[in-house]
Design brief:
alpha+beta, 7-stranded antiparallel beta sheet, 20 helices
């Protein structure tokens, strides 16, 4: 029965990977480390750097039985040893907490028969194994000493984890905390009460290229999740009595947000099993932050709200369209000021307990991972993911943003080889791997849209690292095309252009020389762009004609007219927001950095990028007093976009659109990262669960069988597991994490576009579409583009 269940659930995992359209073989060609490197790695276990990769003085241990089992072997006489000082082979420690219990089958399935059974299978007498948190003065020494105990199945450090968003640091620097206050004061729109069941009619749907890519204006290939086909053919069905629930294991969720408040799972207080764990109405907070375990409000970075919004923003005539507007979001907060394996284990205990209690949790979305590339496999997390998988929950994880090849064979994926888990990389709107995404044919399963993803962010006034963004072209235009009062100016280039452009050769940070007259570009109506048909071109060929050479530092000065600045001056705004979109035709050219006026020119932590081969969208804020104090003598305002002239500047064009000034941000945000790709796959997986037409509660085998009956297999899981057991290339001893040489670098041995040769690039241009057909039940079919 177990084997049948595993086979059925693997079908669902395979189907989910199929529907996310880009096969992992796109990143073929990477090779594992040499035998000499592997042998050297195996010589000495490497747990990472204390205080950087893991919490010093803490160990997680998986034992056969309970804390009493460990206490008995450590010489404490078999009594409950929580908080008591124990000793093993001269290393002292204490048991701080019993984090969770997992099934013995999950342990054996994850770690293999030998490791899962300790020194001998006959010694396993408990129906479950417990995961304990220990404290000690020497983490590596205790891990080594614990391997001598028969009851110890596995031991490892308490690793650190972080959200996988590519631009969090830049966002923190680019936006002031004042942005959050404006958002917190905003009242939800009345339309959210009425609701709509047509996701394509959501106001911001046209800006969600990941769901429906309409940027294709040339002959290039473009991709998206293609969910419209699923929506149009019945994949949005749901059960009011037992809706699909997606657990967002992240920084929490803003359950008051206008686009999420009607999508929240809010039954947490109805289950004594969950309140006993410390959960509240919407979920649980397993961090050590001060807000308490019952409140999973997103007050850390707004990251979890963004992910939840991609998955299940309500179809309510407000904001964006969630992939599955009929799903419910369970908020499971574990990312906080210091996020560790300990908190993730507790998070998974909560969602697995919910599943076992009858909550229809089908998917766990995890847009996070190790703080540093190269962290050894976290087999404690591996076990709890398997434990949830056996209950019928598929885990979706972001692969990471280090640009690393995870097929190195050195165990740097957090849960390497788990058949209940889908690792997701990020691709761009023109079907290329994102520059930041981690990859690997064996380790990373699928690639999903992950650049310039528009979604909600938290409205909490306690967060400052991912505040609301000023998005005038999505939020500040009235139905008749006029601007709302909170937007003082927007140049769309569909009509007369008021904003002017100069192209400069830069000598130093404060002086520029004009080489080309104003308005160097010509109005273009080719249709390129997310927002509109018009744009302003700046041809770098004019710089070449004026004598610039490759490697010279140039700048494009953009000047907003005094008439627009005068509207700012006449307003009662305290903060001014500057928004712009743009890009350039040369993918090899580096970012154009935004320079704003002040004492000379001040570099901001953002600029104009070409992350998705098309458009980038940004906003920047400052106080009104600072803005007004740095105007030109004629009352206009200028900013520079500074960069290095590329080799092929003669054929390079920089383009701008929708440059705007305003005062009111919206509780939404454009963001990049595998964190943004992961919820796309989670949302599609929830659609699959809903389309199966079966309630997915109950035991795991029944849930998997129901899904198998409704959907046929598209392609098999690529990892080729034997019985689901992970084959560790590291040392064979129990209680060891997979070691790695300190400082070993992962080579990114692919070409700039992510493919080693023409053949692999051609293979990448195979699109996996959601084709929902009615033949007695729903089918997922595969088609080559």
């Amino acid at each position: 029965m177990k084997a049948a269940f595993r086979k059925a659930l693997s079908v669902v995992v395979s189907l989910t990977m199929v529907c996310c359209l880009t096969p992992t073989a796109s990143f073929a060609g990477q090779t594992a480390g040499s035998d000499a490197v592997v042998q050297a790695v195996q010589a000495t276990p490497y747990y990472g750097e204390p205080g950087v990769d893991y919490e010093p003085g803490e160990v997680l241990v998986l034992v056969d039985g309970t804390a009493d089992s460990l206490a008995a072997e450590a010489g404490a006489g078999g009594f409950s040893a929580l908080g008591s000082q124990l000793n093993v082979n001269g290393v002292s420690f204490s048991i701080q907490e019993n984090l969770t219990s997992v099934s013995r089958s999950a342990v054996a399935e994850t770690l293999g028969a030998e490791e899962g059974a300790g020194e001998g299978a006959s010694l396993l007498s408990s129906p479950t194994d417990d995961i304990l948190l220990l404290s000690t003065d020497d983490t590596p020494a205790l891990i080594d000493a614990l391997s001598a105990l028969e009851c110890v199945v596995y031991a490892q450090p308490n690793y650190y984890y972080e959200a996988y968003t590519a631009d969090d640091q830049a966002l923190q620097q680019a936006y002031g905390a004042a942005a959050t206050a404006a958002s917190a004061a905003a009242e939800p729109a009345e339309a959210s009460i009425q609701g709509s069941t047509t996701p394509t009619e959501e106001p911001f749907f046209q800006y969600q290229w990941g769901l429906s890519n309409t940027i294709d204006v040339n002959s290039r290939e473009y991709r998206s999740l293609n969910v419209e086909a699923a929506w149009a053919n019945g994949a949005i069905q749901t059960s009011a009595d037992n809706p699909v629930v997606v657990a967002v294991v992240d920084s929490g969720v803003d359950y008051t947000h206008e686009d999420l408040k009607d999508s929240m799972w809010d039954k947490g207080l109805d289950y004594p099993q969950l309140t006993a764990l410390g959960g509240g109405m919407y979920g649980i907070d397993t961090t050590d932050d001060e807000q308490g375990s019952t409140d999973p409000m997103d007050t850390y970075v707004g990251h979890g709200t963004h992910c939840a919004s991609v998955i299940a923003s309500a179809w309510n005539d407000v904001g964006i369209a969630g992939i599955n507007g009929n799903a419910e979001i369970m908020a499971v907060r574990f990312l906080g000021n210091k996020s560790k394996t300990e908190g993730a284990v507790k998070a998974y205990e909560y969602l697995t307990t919910a599943k076992q209690a009858g909550v229809n949790v089908c998917v766990a979305s995890n847009s996070w991972g190790p703080t540093a590339s190269g962290q050894p496999t976290d087999n404690i997390m591996n076990v709890v993911v398997t434990n949830a998988g056996e209950a019928g929950i598929i885990s979706v994880f972001a692969a990471g943003n280090a640009g690393a090849n995870h097929d190195s064979g050195l165990g740097e994926m957090m849960c390497q080889g788990n058949p209940y888990l889908i690792y997701v990389g990020a691709f761009t709107s023109d079907a290329r791997p994102a520059v930041f995404t981690d990859y690997g044919m064996q380790a990373v399963d699928v690639f999903s849209p992950g650049t310039r993803i528009l979604a909600a962010t938290t409205t909490s006034d306690k967060v400052s690292t991912m505040p609301p963004q000023y998005i005038p072209w999505a939020t500040d235009v009235n139905p008749d095309g006029t601007l709302k009062p909170t937007t003082y100016f927007m140049d769309t280039y569909e009509g007369s252009a008021e904003t002017t452009f100069d192209l400069f050769l830069v000598n130093d940070a404060t002086q520029v020389h004009t080489l080309v007259a104003q308005n160097v570009g010509e109005l273009d109506t080719s249709g390129i762009g997310y927002v509109s048909d018009g744009r302003m071109n700046v041809a770098l060929s004019k710089a070449v004609d004026a004598g610039m050479k490759a490697g010279d530092t140039f700048a494009i000065r953009v000047t907003i007219p005094a008439s627009a600045v005068g509207k700012v001056a006449a307003s009662d705004a305290e903060n001014v927001y500057l928004a712009y979109t743009g890009g350039y035709t040369n993918r090899a050219m580096g970012m154009l950095y935004l320079m704003t006026q002040g004492a000379g020119w001040t570099s901001q932590s953002q600029g104009l990028a070409n992350r998705d081969g098309n458009w980038s969208m940004y906003s920047w804020s400052t106080s009104k007093s600072s803005f007004m104090g740095n105007l030109n003598s004629d009352g206009s305002y200028s900013m520079l976009f500074q960069g290095t002239l590329p080799e092929d500047a003669q054929d390079t064009t920089v383009y701008f659109d929708n440059i705007a000034l305003g005062s009111e941000p919206a509780p939404y945000y454009y963001s990049d990262g595998t964190s943004m790709a992961c919820p796309g796959v989670s949302g599609v997986t929830s659609l699959l669960a809903a389309a199966a037409g079966q309630a997915l509660s109950g035991d795991g085998a029944a849930a998997a069988a129901a899904r198998d009956r409704g959907l046929h297999q598209g392609r098999r899981h690529p990892r080729g597991h034997a019985g689901g057991q992970v084959q560790h290339p590291g040392p064979g001893g129990r209680g060891r994490v997979l070691p790695r040489l300190r400082g070993e670098r992962r080579s990114h041995d692919v070409s700039r576009d992510g493919f080693p040769d023409r053949q692999r690039r051609r293979h990448h241009h195979v699109e996996w579409l959601l084709l929902w057909q009615h033949k007695g039940n729903s089918e997922l079919q595969r088609r080559s583009a």
